[in-house]
Structure formats: C-alpha cells, structure tokens
Design goal:
The protein folds into 2 domains: about 60 residues, Alpha-Beta Plaits; about 130 residues, CDGSH iron-sulfur domain, mitoNEET-type (Ribosomal Protein L9, domain 1). The protein has about 220 residues and is mainly β. The strands form 2 sheets. Strands 4, 5, 6, 7, 8 and 9 form a 6-stranded mixed β-sheet that branches. The chain has a 3-stranded antiparallel β-sheet with strand order 1-2-3, with helices on one face. A hairpin with a 5-residue loop joins strand 8 and strand 9.
Length: about 220
Amino acid sequence: MRRRLHGYRGERIVVTYDAKRCIHARECVRGLPEVFDPGRRPWVNPGAADADAVAAVIARCPTGALHFERRDGGPAEAPPGANVVTVAADGPLYLRGDLRLVSPAGEVVLSDTRLALCRCGASADKPFCDGRHEAAGFRDPGRPPPAAAPAAGAGAGPLRVTPSANGPLLLSGPFELRGADGGACFAGEEAALCRCGASADKPFCDGSHRRIGFTAP
C-alpha cells in the first residue's frame, strides 16, 4: 500500500506524517505544541523537544498518521501487549495492537500499531477514516449491543483486518472490543464489523450493506 509520507528530520528522531490518515485528533498538538504547530511551516519541528517525549506523543496518535524513526539508538515503537478495538461515539473504529491490514486476496498491505477505520461508509479513503462521519451526520453512541456479552481477555498474536469487497471488516486474531466509554464488551478471534454505516447491530455487520448497495474495495 503506497502512501505519500511527509518526513521531518531532527538530529535524534525523524517524524513521518500521512496527511490522508490524519483526522485532527490533535493529540500531538496538545501534547507537544512546541514540536507540532499547524500554524507554522514546516508544522513539525522534531528538534524542539527531547526525542523520548516526541516518540511518546506520537504513540498517542490514534490514527497512525504519525510515526517516528529514532536516529539516536532509542527504542522503536512496540505494539501493545493486546489488540484492542474501540468503537468511537459517532466516529471510527480505533485499533491498537499488532495489526495487519490485509487485502481480499490475502496480501498484507500494511503492518501498523495504530489504525482508525471508517464505519460510517462516507470516507473517501476507505478503509481508513478521513473524518467525513461529521459531515455525513453519522450517529452511533459507540455502545455495542447487550448480545455482545463480556468475555475474558483475548490472547496474544497479530490481528488481521480484511476489508471485504462491498462488505464488512473481517477480523481474524485475538482482540478485545471496547465501547466508547472504554469498557470491554467482547473478546474473541473472529468478527465481522460494519463499515457501511447502516447496520442495526453496530458495530457488528448485519448484512445491511447488501440492502443499501454499499460499494467499497
């Protein structure tokens, strides 16, 4: 998966930025405004803070738009010990963990630790969220239904995420699903999550993509 990345080089750390994956969560701006300032050009100044601090703030970016490469021998970002999928209220699915984005043909097209994936059906950059849920008026409280009964924590291993053609996101691998309030509501190794925005069983797919004629690669 080829993406256009902007690079910002400091003496001790290099920051990369994928503008299309940014939905302006502003974790970077709030965390280190001396490094990340949208009103300045270039807007990222990696040398304005300690490299450890820059790396820590980048790890808070929920979309994976920001990444870093250490030039001082410091540690690379490590995936969390567990894969977590969080359903944002009126917004995307936020994924953290050892993640593999997989094509319908089974090819791993992206390995990452952080992803924000569209669940409203309106993104122009599917499967990624591009923030269009706000303009589309997407509404969902991010509370999985009672049928998604709580379960014990998920095991270890990578989580494969496959956007099926014209259909849901297929998850394969250990993960924990959390609601917008942060509470765990489901843990397992297989799920089909809605990405058309029409399911009556959100965040799970109920087949509504066929009824509404949803199209997406």
